[in-house]
């Protein structure tokens, strides 16, 4: 079967990788090229371009880009049905007494396409209609020639293994979420049950940064590339105003990742606002600054930004007496690196440096690149909004989707890195399940730590004490 190149080999910096690109003799019909790069085409022509033949196999750049973007125009199960139809009709797999030599030439390429689809977009196959089409097509191949039965079994087994792993991950998330409780509720009901803080669980900021990196890579691993596109799926004007992809459950792993960022920010703020003594609060702030600095050194920008976000929350930033005891020089440097001005220029420069380091790395530690996810999503959103999906002639704007695929492919490469640090289950359990304050409870804890400074804060403090504690 054709060999599948690794993700980084698929794209170069300027456009399609010319070494991988193979043109069909008849591919110009319905497709528009410029300097050997496919820029646009009708949806039907692009689907036909996806289907291999005896003397043609689409390059992997096209396969990834089209499978990623096509869901904005046609649902995956509908695309799969069309691909199967073309494979069967055009390749004459439905004819009795078909020439086995023809099948032996064509079947490996069809199987390779199915391998690419099931490996890169396995979540598409949670749809029973997708699985049904997959099995029907593979049965047609094996019914004519048993040689490929083993290949087909391997494709399906690998797919089922990925889907089973996803199911286990989702069950784990559900169990973790079931354990998470509001800290104020726990304090009111069982105040003695919350004796620990983050430093008693892990007094080494370097270790905590490493455990945060475990959580980041675990959650990043289960985000399918298609989720970055499905998050912004709109109605296709050529599709009779039907929403072609309205199922928001298709982005649940991406949503879970964003929720983790928010949780970490609130955990940081909770840990700081909770201690009674000013000296202890200052120590926890300095501890998190050290954790954030180590996250930066590792290349874990998502945890870094979540920690900075927690440190900058109003209930924390208003603790002026506490901050007066903090050595803030290291924090000032980190804030400068993550400064949002000039469209996060400093962060983007640091990210490019980490990405470059990753390309030449010899160890998994040096390969780690975990981008600030919310900004990555925002970038894709604005890129999607700024470019039309279709050209005035109705063609799919494939030039747009090539650029989109290049961005998504980068994060897909980064998420494949294995975390090199040893897991500490006790620390991971605390990070994932320790009770955190809501926003109102954070303000109340902040006012209890350092009293209100003006009438507005005093009024809010009274309101919060009344509503959250039942006290006047």
TrEMBL record:
A Gene Ontology biological process in which this protein takes part is: Ras protein signal transduction
Q: Does the keyword Membrane apply?
A: no
Which UniProt keywords are present, listed alphabetically? Guanine-nucleotide releasing factor
User: Which SMART domains does the protein's record reference?
Assistant: RasGEF, RasGEFN
A Pfam family of the record is: RasGEF_N
The record ties this protein, via Gene3D superfamilies, to: Ras guanine-nucleotide exchange factors catalytic domain, Son of sevenless (SoS) protein Chain: S domain 1
* Cellular-component GO terms for this entry: plasma membrane
MF terms from GO for this chain are: guanyl-nucleotide exchange factor activity
| UniProt KW Transcription keyword | no
The protein's name is: Ras-GEF domain-containing family member 1B
Name its species.
Microcaecilia unicolor
Q: Gene name on record? A: RASGEF1B
């Amino acid at each position: 079967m054709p060999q599948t190149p690794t993700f980084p080999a698929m794209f170069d910096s300027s456009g399609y990788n010319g070494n991988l690109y193979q043109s069909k003799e008849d591919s110009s019909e319905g497709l528009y090229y410029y300097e050997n790069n496919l820029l646009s085409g009708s949806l039907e022509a692009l689907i036909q371009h996806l289907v291999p033949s005896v003397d043609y196999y689409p390059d992997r750049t096209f396969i990834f880009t089209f499978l990623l973007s096509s869901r904005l125009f046609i649902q995956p199960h509908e695309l799969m049905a069309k691909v199967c139809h073309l494979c069967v009709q055009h390749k004459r797999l439905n004819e009795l007494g078909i020439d086995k030599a023809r099948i032996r030439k064509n079947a490996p390429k069809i199987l390779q396409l199915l391998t690419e689809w099931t490996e890169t977009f396995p979540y598409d196959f949670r749809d029973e209609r997708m699985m049904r089409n997959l099995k029907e097509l593979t049965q047609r191949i094996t019914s004519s020639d048993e040689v490929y039965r083993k290949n087909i079994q391997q494709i399906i087994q690998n797919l089922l293994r990925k889907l089973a792993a996803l199911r286990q991950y989702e069950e784990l998330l559900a169990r973790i979420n079931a354990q998470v409780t509001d800290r104020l509720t726990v304090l009111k009901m069982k105040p003695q049950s919350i004796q620990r803080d983050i430093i008693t669980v892990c007094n080494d900021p370097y270790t905590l940064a490493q455990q945060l990196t475990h959580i980041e890579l675990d959650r990043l691993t289960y985000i399918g590339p298609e989720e970055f596109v499905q998050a912004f799926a709109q109605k296709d004007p050529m599709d009779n105003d039907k929403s072609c992809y309205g199922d928001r459950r298709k982005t649940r792993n991406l949503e879970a990742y964003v929720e983790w960022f928010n949780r970490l920010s609130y955990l940081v703020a909770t840990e700081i606002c909770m201690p009674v003594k000013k000296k202890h609060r200052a120590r926890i702030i300095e501890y998190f600054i050290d954790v954030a600095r180590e996250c930066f050194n590792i290349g874990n920008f998502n945890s870094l930004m979540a920690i900075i976000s927690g440190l900058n929350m109003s209930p924390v930033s208003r603790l002026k007496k506490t901050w007066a005891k903090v050595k803030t020089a290291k924090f000032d440097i980190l804030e400068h690196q993550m400064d949002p001005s000039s469209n996060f220029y400093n962060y983007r420069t640091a990210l490019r440096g980490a990405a470059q380091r990753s390309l030449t790395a010899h160890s998994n530690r040096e390969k780690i690149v975990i981008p600030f996810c919310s900004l990555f999503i925002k970038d894709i959103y604005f890129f999607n909004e700024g470019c039309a999906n279709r050209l005035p002639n109705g063609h799919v704007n494939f030039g747009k989707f090539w650029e989109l695929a290049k961005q998504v492919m980068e994060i897909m490469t980064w998420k494949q890195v294995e975390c090199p640090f040893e897991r500490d289950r006790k620390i991971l359990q605390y990070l994932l399940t320790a009770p955190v304050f809501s926003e109102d409870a954070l303000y109340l804890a902040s006012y209890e730590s350092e009293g209100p400074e003006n009438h507005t804060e005093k009024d809010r403090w009274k309101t919060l004490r009344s509503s959250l504690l039942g006290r006047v």
